[in-house]
Specification:
The structure holds 2 protein chains of 2 kinds. Chain A is α+β, with helices and mostly antiparallel strands. Chain A has 15 helices and 12 strands. Chain A starts with a helix and ends with a helix. Chain B has one domain: Rossmann fold, CATH 3.40.50.300. The longest helix of chain B is centred in the C-terminal third of the chain and has 16 residues. Classes of the chains: A alpha+beta, B alpha/beta.
Chain lengths: 392, 224
């Protein structure tokens, strides 16, 4: 029966009864659009995160006493440098600076710019910075969120930090950190180590942590062991843990959407099932008429299968394309805030186009199979009843 | 052509209140014969037509059409039999409302594997025979009762069936349209078709062609 006449008749039914299908297509497109958007955002964030973490130091080590973070002594650096396989050992000072009027905070990271070799993105950034003017006066590099926040509060060229002794320290804004690092550096301020110490009123010989690299991945666990042997009160965090933490955060948010999707699709499929199995439905009469004029059960199922296939494929393609445009062209307004959170500083991330075809394929199956079942099971039930009854 | 032997049809057979719609019906219909089944509503006329058209199956007994036992046919064969041998004209027309006249008429030919050009050609001939060709592109919703009837006739004729079955064909028609319908039946009879009409319309009492009147009452044939 797969001849041109069959497809001609199929297209007639689809076109002439389009009002019957528009509702199903509309709801399907919304469901697919939302879930695809979430999947695109999640995949893109994870990809961006991996790229950002590539440029971060492999390890940070800090001191914990009775579970409380305390200043890390600078003499640790000398000992860490002695460990074979360790490179780019850099002292760092970091901490949150609270901007009281709005209850916002910035993450200040103080690094030794002359010694800083561990952060490759910072190195690239410094290449484009006028170092002469940067070091001529107190200066800082700020994340995009910080830049926007400061501009909104009329601090477009510099910002005056309130020091613990009550005086103010004016620091010039030298440059904005690249937007591609927004995922973790949106609220970050990078400044010379000594300046950061001054803002936090730290001792000359104190730092908050030490960053280091271990180029050979296979040695990571050994190095962690050695660090713990050297410093019994050290807390060592490696890049993998940060990656895992972010991944589980995005997976958790994606999972919530998946549950919502499941609830929505089950409801939708139940509605479809009800529609097709209604005792006096137009569908039932149509099937009864076709059966009475000589269509077999098989013919009816084929017709409804192809009808559903057209609806499913067109809804899926439309939903995915709209989601692609929404996420990768318009940067997913609203959904972006749900994923990134904007309670501190508004973050705007440019999503790098990433399509995981395996996930899209699974999504198609999870959508298409229940859809087909919700249509074809009641259609089959009607088709096997005597045509006379179905036409009633 | 049609041999019906000791047919019974019981609805709700397994329930506590079964209803026996047909009781021991035996009937022989020759080729090119015109049968008028008359009787009040509920006498079993429509049920008998459904069994002959294989739209339903008898509870017991057998129906043989052209040597083929159609009362026991599996679905695929029953559908093929309906498509090839039966032209059914229903009381309420049973047309697909959203489609046009032509689109309704081609519907029985879709499973036939014919190409769309041949199908449309056959539909055109059928529409001309039923006098509805001028309304080919109009949707069913736009037609009058008489036009719907002619569309239903064209659909019944499009497969060139041997047997034309009509269930209360004039119940929704005025007298003028009923007479036109009888004219069409007369033409079909002249073309060698076998015709079975279930009706209680007195207009069928005097027909312009030879026919056999069978009276039904309470699921039985009471007068032949």
């Amino acid at each position: 029966m797969h001849n041109n006449a069959f497809f001609h008749f199929l297209s007639l039914l689809l076109f002439k009864q389009k009002n019957k299908h528009i509702g199903a297509i509309f709801i399907s497109v919304i469901i697919i659009f939302l879930l695809s958007s979430v999947l695109f955002i999640s995949s893109s964030l994870q990809k961006s995160l991996q790229a950002t973490l590539q440029n971060q130091p492999d390890f940070t080590i800090s001191r914990l006493q009775a579970g409380r973070a305390v200043d890390t002594p600078t003499e640790w650096i000398e000992k860490i440098v002695q460990i074979d396989g360790v490179s780019a050992v850099t002292p760092r000072v970091y901490g949150r600076y609270f901007f009281a009027p709005n209850e916002n905070s910035f993450l200040i990271v103080g690094v030794d710019f002359f010694d800083e070799q561990s952060n490759r993105s910072l190195q690239e950034l410094m290449e484009t910075t006028d170092l002469k003017s940067f070091f001529a006066m107190p200066s800082m590099l700020v994340g995009e969120g910080v830049q926007k926040f400061m501009s909104a509060h009329y601090y477009s060229d510099s910002f005056s930090f309130k020091l613990p002794n009550g005086s103010f320290k004016k620091v010039a804004i030298a440059q904005q950190l690249p937007s591609s690092t927004n995922l973790i550096a949106n609220d970050m301020i990078v400044m010379p180590l000594e300046l950061a110490k001054e803002i936090f009123a730290m001792e000359e010989e104190s730092i908050t942590d030490i960053a280091l690299n271990v180029p050979n991945d296979a040695e990571w666990d050994t190095i962690v062991g050695k660090l713990h042997l050297l410093f019994y009160d050290a807390q060592v965090i490696d890049k993998r843990e940060i990656s895992k933490a972010y991944k589980s955060l995005y997976n958790y948010k994606g999972g919530l959407f998946l549950i919502l999707y499941l609830i929505t699709i089950i409801t939708f499929m139940l509605i479809l099932y009800q529609r097709y199995s209604m005792v006096y439905s137009a569908e039932k009469k149509e099937i009864g008429i076709l059966r009475a004029i000589g269509w077999s059960i098989q013919d009816i199922l084929k017709l409804k299968f192809y009808e559903t296939l057209v609806i499913v494929i067109s809804s899926f393609i439309l939903g995915v394309v709209l989601a692609y445009i929404f996420v990768f062209i318009f940067d997913a307004p609203l959904l972006q805030e749900i994923f990134l959170g904007g309670e501190n500083l508004a973050n705007s991330v440019v999503f790098v186009p990433t399509i995981e075809f395996g996930i899209l394929g699974s999504l198609f199956l999870f959508f298409a199979l229940p859809f087909f079942a919700s249509v074809l099971i009641p259609v089959w039930k009607i088709a096997v009843t005597p045509p006379k009854e179905a036409m009633l | 052509m049609i041999e019906i032997e000791n047919i019974h049809k019981i609805f709700n057979e397994k329930s506590s209140e079964p209803f026996e719609a047909l009781k021991s019906i035996t009937l022989h219909i020759a080729k090119n014969e015109a049968i008028i089944l008359s009787g009040v509503s509920g006498s079993g006329k429509s049920t008998l037509l459904s069994l002959i058209a294989s739209l339903d199956k008898p509870s017991s007994g057998k129906i043989v059409v052209d040597g083929e036992l159609i009362s026991k046919l599996p679905d695929l064969h029953a559908s093929h039999y309906r498509a090839k041998s039966i032209g059914f004209i229903f009381q309420h027309f049973n047309l697909l409302e959203a489609l046009s006249v032509e689109e309704n008429i081609i519907a029985p030919l879709i499973p036939s594997r014919l190409d769309i050009i041949t199908i449309k050609k056959q539909a055109q001939e059928s529409m001309q025979r039923a006098g509805i060709a001028h309304k080919a592109s109009q949707t069913i919703r736009e037609l009058s009762g008489g036009e719907k009837q002619r569309c239903a006739i064209a659909r019944a004729l499009v497969t060139d069936p041997k047997l034309i079955i009509c269930d209360e064909p004039t119940a929704n028609l005025d007298k003028a349209n009923s007479l036109k319908f009888i004219e069409i039946l007369s033409t079909l009879k002249a073309l060698g078709k076998t015709i079975i009409v279930a009706t209680h319309d007195p207009i069928f009492d005097t027909l312009p062609f030879e026919s056999r009147l069978i009276k039904m009452e309470d699921g039985r044939i009471v007068d032949e």
